[in-house]
Amino acid sequence: MRQIFTLIISLLIANTTVYGQSSEIEKYFASIEAAEREQNLAKACSEYKAAINYCRQNNEEQHHLTNLLLGYCIILSYTGDYSKAIATLNEAAERNHRQPTPDKEIEAKIYMQFGVINFFQKRFDDALFYYRKSEAIAVSTKNKMGISIAKNNIANVYQKKGEYRQAIDSYRKCIKLQEELQDTATLANTYFNLGSCYEELSIQDRAKAYYKLAYSLAHTINDIEILSLSLIHLANIDAKRGEYSKAHNMLDEAEFSAKKSRTAAGVGGGILQTYANIRTKRRLSGCPGSVQRTTIAARLHIGRETKSPYQRVADRAPDQRERATDSPTKRKNKKPQQAAYHSDGSTYCRHCDDNSATVS
Questions:
Q1: What is the DSSP secondary structure assignment for residue 350, as one 8-state letter?
Q2: What is the pLDDT, as a whole number, of residue 289?
Q3: Whole-number Å distance between alpha carbons of 65 and 91
Q4: Residue 328 pLDDT exceeds 50
Q5: DSSP single-letter state for residue 286
Q6: Strand bridging mode 339-341 / 347-349
Q7: Per residue in 176-227, pLDDT tens?
Q8: For residues 227 and 192, is the Cβ–Cβ distance under 8 A?
Q9: Torsion from C-alpha of 224, 226, 228, 234, nearest 10 degrees
C-alpha cells in the first residue's frame, strides 16, 4: 500500500503539467513533492491546503484544483482523517462531473481512493466494490498501470479476508503487467505481497523465494522500506527453522538500511518484534547465546508504539501495502456510505502452481 501513496501522488502531480503552470503554482507542487519524498504527512497536508487555497483564489489556476483535491484526499486517508478525506473526495468527484467531458482517469482514481478509505477502515466488501469499479475504467481506457494498481489492491483485500487462491491469482496478474511495464518499484512491492501471502499459508519455501525477489529488486532501485521489510520476514522464516545466526544477520542488515533512510520509524517496530521472537524461540529451544538488542529502539529513535502511518499500512500484511467479496450483488441491501458521480450523471456509492491444492 505504500506504493499507492508514492505512485498516485506522483501521477497526480505529473498530470497537472498538461495545463502548464505558473511559477507560483510550480512552487506549491515542488513543496508537495518534497513532502512526499520525505514521507512527511503533516507537511504534505499543509502544502496541499495552501495550494488548494491558492487555486480557489485564482481563477486561472482552477484547472489544477481537482487533481489537488484528489491528492489531498490521499494524504488525509493515510493520516486517518476519513471524514475529511470523503468530503474532499466528493468535491473532486463533483468538479470532475461538472466538466463538459468528465475525465475517466480522474473518475477511476476517485473510485480507487474510495476503496482505499474503506480498506483502511476494514470495510473490505466496500473496498472491493470500488477497486472493481476503478479496474473496469482502467480496462476500458487500456490503462495498464491503472489495472495493475487495482489488481494489487484487490489482491490485498482477498489476502486480508483469507481468500488466498484469489489473492495469489491477482498478484500473479499484477506481476505480468508490471513486467510488461518494466515497473520495478511496484513489482518489488508485489513480490513482497506474494511472499507474505505464502508465509501466511505456511508455504515457507515459496514465501522465502518471493521475499528474496523483493529484496533483490528493492536493493537495485534503493527502495529501503521494501528491502528492510523483506529482510525482516526472511529473518522470521529462518528463525522458525532454528537458523538464528542467519536471522540475526538479516535483522542487522535491515537495521543498518533503515537507519540510513527515513523509514527507520516505519520498519523499526518490525525489527524489534522479530528480535524478540528470535530470543523467545532460542530460549524455548534451549539454544544458548541469544543476542540482546535492548538498545535498538534508541538507535533507531523509535518505540514499540511509535508506528508511522506507513508501518500501519505495512501491518495490513502486506503493503502496501497499495487492499473482498465475489459479487457486488451481495451488497444490494446496504446503504451507501459516500456519494459521487458516474460520467453519465447518475450517483454511485461508496490496492497455477504445485501447491494450489493447499490454497483455499
A1: -
A2: 41
A3: 10
A4: no
A5: T
A6: antiparallel
A7: 999 999 999 889 999 999 999 999 999 999 999 999 999 999 999 988 888 9
A8: no
A9: -150
Residue pair 206/176 in contact by the 8 Å Cβ criterion: no
Task: Record the cell numbers describing residue 5, joined without a space.
Answer: 501513496
At which residue does the C-alpha cell 498478484 appear?
171
**Residue 282: CB partners within 8 Å, gap ≥ 6?**
244, 288, 289, 290
Place of cell 472493481: 132
With H, G, I as helix, E, B as strand and everything else as coil, classify residue 340: strand
Distance CA 89, CA 83 (A): 10
Local structure of residue 358 (DSSP, 8 states): G
Q: Rounded to an integer, what distance in angstroms lies between the CA atom of residue 205 and that of residue 213?
A: 13
Closest CA to 273 of 321, 213, 233: 233
State pTM to two decimals. 0.71
Instruction: Write the burial class of residue 63 (CB in 10 Å: 0-12 exposed, 13-18 middle, 19+ buried).
Output: middle
> Average pLDDT of 327-339?
37
CA distances from 356 to 166, 173, 213, 326 (A): 11, 16, 21, 19
Separation of alpha carbons 21 and 1, rounded Å: 30
Other residues' Cβ atoms within 10 Å of the Cβ of residue 6: 21
Identify residue 236 by its one-letter amino acid code.
N
User: Which backbone phi and psi does 340 adopt, to 5 degrees?
Assistant: -150, -155
